[in-house]
């Protein structure tokens, strides 16, 4: 027996399949675009004299398209923003990178350097300590240890300087 509704169901299924395929193709195209923006930003960062504004724009576009493209997209944007002296924003980006890739010692070391620049010596000590734990068997471990220890010495010196009066009063 002939069913009049069958051609309509087939057409409906075909339309849904076409829409789904178009959506998937668009998502794939955006993914490639995010990757290409990321690579353009990275290339700009690695130039001897990078155009920081151009690098930031490329990395912003990559992360706007795909916020989870790479922890290193956030790391490199943090590097750019840091060089533009927007330290709080740079800290936010490197912290996002760490959230995406929490076992990467280099990200913690980068954040420690930034925290030290921001005069957050205790935060730098903490991050260098984490980097040291994560990289304990790598050649970088000794560098992280030295940097952490220099922060500890710096912190001790600051504490001592605050406790020592600058001028002794005469009796």
If you had to describe this structure to a student in words, what would you say it looks like?
- The protein is 77% helix and 0% strand.
- The protein contains 7 helices and no strands.
- It has helices at 6-45, 52-65, 71-83, 87-100, 105-117, 121-134, 140-163.
- α1 (6-45) packs antiparallel against α2 (52-65) and α6 runs antiparallel to α7 (140-163).
- It is elongated and about 95 Å long.
Topology overview:
Layout: H1 6-45, H2 52-65, H3 71-83, H4 87-100, H5 105-117, H6 121-134, H7 140-163
Helix pairs in contact: 1-2, 1-3, 2-3, 3-4, 4-5, 5-6, 6-7
Keywords summarizing the entry:
171 residues; mainly alpha; single chain
Provide a compact summary of the structure.
The chain is 77% helix and 0% strand.
Strand content: under 5%
Largest sheet: none
Number of helices: 7
Based on Cα principal axes, name the global outline: elongated
Supply the helix-strand structural class. Answer: mainly alpha
Query: Uncertain regions: pLDDT < 50 for 5+ in a row?
Result: none
Instruction: Please trace the helix and strand order, writing H or E for each element.
Output: HHHHHHH
Overall mean pLDDT stands at 87
